[in-house]
Design brief:
Elements (H helix, E strand, L loop, with lengths): L2 H16 L10 H14 L7 E4 L1 H6 L19 E4 L3 E2 L9 E2 L5 E3 L4 E3 L3 E3 L4 E3 L7 E2 L5 E8 L6 E2 L5 E8 L6 E2 L6 E3 L2 E3 L6 E2 L9 E3 L2 E3 L6 E2 L5 E3 L2 E3 L6 E2 L7 E3 L2 E3 L13 E2 L4 E2 L7
Parallel strand pairs: 1-2, 2-5, 3-6, 4-9, 5-10, 6-10, 9-11, 10-12, 11-13, 12-14, 12-15, 13-16, 14-17, 15-18, 16-19, 17-20, 18-21, 19-22, 20-23, 21-24, 23-25, 24-26
Antiparallel strand pairs: 7-8
């Protein structure tokens, strides 16, 4: 919904509410604004065509006409969605938060999907709470601008042609990101302190992905588990329990301008294989692996 339209609705609501004697001291603009979000979500979204998702509609009404109450929130192919609150899975730890159909867009809008998993140490050791995933992607889906923290399963499950950008994925019980990822773009994310790999794209049909500008740190096992014919540029990969970058030997992969430090217990930072197309830094020098 555009801002002038939203402002007009809020003005009308405030005028109605504050006309009721004795009610003004029991309500705030913040409360009214939150209720407006819920109303818009239940009616399918605002004037900009983006459907709102929040905790209230997720658990009580469903967030659009095709969604039923309770997690996971489902989506419709080709539609755009935006979080308007955090999504809290701590009371339903075995449920996924959001299931994305093909070619959907999910803008987390600065909000979090959060569970009860806790992790400590570097590399991380995690105590998963449940098995639920944060976001399960559909082919060609786009996920951006928020956080998945503390879910028991995988933070973001990848599918072919997905784009994931500007996300924090941290303290998940399994991999931070995982899945078959042909033609994916995984760009400008922070993937930290997860219970297995940071980014896991080492599947037979995962080809042609771009993994660029990510910080991948403190994960229990491998930092980036690579894919065939994939490109790895400008990543900062450090303090992971296994190799910083692995499975380059699957064929046709390339890497350059990355920094690897203190992975694999101080051993080799990069598993042999792949084509080094520009200098990388491994443990303070440019000899990689």
């Amino acid at each position: 919904m555009n801002m002038p339209t939203r402002a007009l609705i809020l003005t009308a609501l405030v005028g109605s509410v504050f006309a009721v004697p004795g009610y003004a001291d029991r309500v705030s603009l913040v409360t009214i604004d939150a209720k407006l979000d819920t109303l818009l979500a239940s009616s399918g979204g605002g004037g900009d065509g983006v459907v709102s998702i929040n905790q209230d509609c997720a658990v009580t009404t469903g967030c659009h006409a095709g969604d039923v109450p309770g997690f996971p929130v489902t989506t419709i192919q080709g539609q755009s969605y935006r979080l308007t609150s955090d999504l809290d899975l701590t009371s339903t730890p075995d449920s996924d938060a959001v299931l994305l159909e093909a070619e959907t867009t999910l803008d987390l809008n600065g909000f979090r999907i959060v569970g009860g998993t806790t992790c400590s140490g570097t590399p991380a050791t995690c105590t998963p709470a449940g098995i639920g995933d944060g976001i399960t992607g559909g082919e060609g889906a786009r996920v951006m601008n928020g956080s998945v923290v503390g879910v028991g399963g995988v933070g973001i499950r990848l599918r072919n042609r997905m784009q994931v950008e500007n996300m924090l994925v941290s303290e998940c019980g399994d991999d931070g990101m995982q899945g078959q990822c042909q033609g994916c773009r995984i760009v400008a994310n922070r993937v930290t302190f997860n219970g297995d790999r940071g980014i896991h794209a080492a599947f037979a049909s995962s080809q042609g992905a771009l993994i660029q500008g990510n910080t991948v740190a403190g994960n229990n096992f491998v930092g980036i588990d690579s894919c065939e014919r994939c490109m790895h540029l400008d990543n900062a990969v450090y303090a992971n329990g296994g190799f910083g970058l692995r499975n380059l030997g699957l064929g046709g992969s390339a890497y350059g301008r990355n920094t690897f430090y203190d992975n694999n217990g101080g051993g080799d930072q990069v598993e042999a294989g792949g084509v080094e197309i520009a200098p990388n830094v491994c443990s303070g020098n440019t000899i990689c692996p």
